[in-house]
Write a structure and sequence with these properties.
The protein is of the alpha+beta class. It has 2 domains: about 140 residues, 2-Layer Sandwich (Ribosomal Protein S5, domain 2), CATH 3.30.230; about 80 residues, Alpha-Beta Plaits. Strands 1, 7, 8, 9 and 10 form a 5-stranded antiparallel sheet that branches. Strands 2-3-6-4-5 form a 5-stranded antiparallel sheet, with helices on both faces. The longest helix is centred in the middle third of the chain and has 19 residues. The chain is elongated and about 75 Å long.
């Protein structure tokens, strides 16, 4: 497993909301995973599930936010201290993704517990909450995010389609093409790495015989 590295310019998150259920000694553990980018969104999920599962005894939660995973929070919601939220948070932060990296972020996990009448003990609770989140992650759809430089390439209406195809064939990521009265603007995403812009400028000059040059737009995190 490789360590999380924000400087690498990439991390993994969940593609869409996902849930799973686990039963242990008649207690039901329902875990919901959702992509969240702010603490407010994370708290909104908890509040939403409190309303949706209003008769459950506990609504424990954990979330990890930001490309650098700087924001990490957990809540035991009435379970003995350290037996629910922290194990859930560790299940999120230690989860290995596409290339063996533990780089999961922008995700909130809420585990709703319906008590089954049998006490699990502190160790049993730790295992149950950890396993519940791990089980949900095992089947959750994940995607990679990458920090990219966005560049605008202008072209005439007649040549825009061909230029876009040429750029795609050369391996460049096209984020879209806008057509206006004066021509077309193709938005190209490049890795946020040294030399990427210069190499792209050279390739573009070759494709257009020096007829156009890219204009920088912004640097953004993009879903791949």
């Amino acid at each position: 497993m490789s360590d999380f590295d924000a400087a690498a310019g990439r991390y993994t998150t969940i593609a869409r909301e996902h849930r799973s259920e686990l039963e242990i000694k008649r207690s039901r553990f329902i875990t919901v995973l959702r992509r969240t980018e702010t603490e407010q969104q994370a708290r909104e999920l908890v509040a939403e599930l409190r309303r949706g599962f209003h008769d459950a005894r506990h609504h424990c939660s954990a979330f990890v936010l930001g490309p650098d995973r700087a924001v990490q929070r957990s809540n035991d919601d009435g379970e003995p201290s350290g037996t629910a939220g922290l194990p859930m948070l560790e299940a999120l932060t230690k989860r290995e993704t596409f290339d063996g990296s533990a780089d999961l972020s922008d995700i909130t996990a809420v585990t709703v517990r319906y008590f089954g009448g049998i006490l699990l003990g502190a160790g049993g609770l730790v295992r149950a909450y950890s396993e519940s989140v791990s089980l949900a992650l095992a089947s959750a759809p994940l995607l990679r995010r990458r920090r990219m430089q966005l560049w605008a390439v202008t072209a005439g209406h007649a040549g825009a389609g061909r230029l876009e195809n040429d750029l795609r064939s050369a391996g460049y990521s096209i984020r879209g093409t806008d057509y206006g009265p004066g021509g077309a603007t193709i938005t190209v995403a490049l890795p946020d790495a040294a030399g990427a812009a210069d190499a792209f400028s050279d390739r573009l000059a070759s494709l257009t015989a020096g007829g156009t040059a890219p204009e920088p737009l912004a640097t953004e995190w993009i879903d791949l």
